[in-house]
Automatic annotation (TrEMBL):
The chain crosses the membrane at residues 12-31, 62-84, 96-115, 135-154. Signal peptide: none annotated. Its main location: endoplasmic reticulum. Keywords: Endoplasmic reticulum, Membrane, Transmembrane, Transmembrane helix. This is Efficient mitochondria targeting-associated protein 19. It is a multi-pass membrane protein. It comes from the Eukaryota. Residues 7-143 form the EXPERA domain. It comes from Penicillium atrosanguineum. GO terms for cellular component: endoplasmic reticulum membrane. Pfam families: EBP. It is found in: Endoplasmic reticulum membrane. Belongs to the TMEM97/sigma-2 receptor family.
Amino acid sequence: MLPTRKRDCAYLIFFATHIPVIFLIDTVPLLPPFMVTSLSHTLRDFYITTYRDKFFSEPPTWFTAFIWMELLYHVPLSLWAVWGLMRDHPLVPVQLLIFGVQAFVTSLTCLVEVWNWPDRSVAEKQQITSLYGPYVALGMYFPLRAVPGGLAFVM
């Protein structure tokens, strides 16, 4: 059953679309070859060419650790969140809180690094920020569901 609350419907859409992105683009370097499709290569090549995101062309070790977090934490959590949101499971707020904090910290770390890349223009940095920034915003917003009345920052 689909949730009737607009916010939970938005969360459901986010998690349902997050799963294919993880497998088609983000975790490609970690996946065994039989799981990597030509579509994955095409999408990653397009992304790297379009956005010049060094995390995907020259990933630092810490970013590879973030990709592992996506594979080992985001995938199971996203699958569970789709199930949990459709059933209004009582643990959804707690899981969103944990996911939100993790997404906020990792995405903000990436943005701090992006804005220190000396070989990228301001316009290129802004373009990458438009991709990572929503995860920072979601990371701040998700915890609001964990506290009754959405007063996470007041308490």
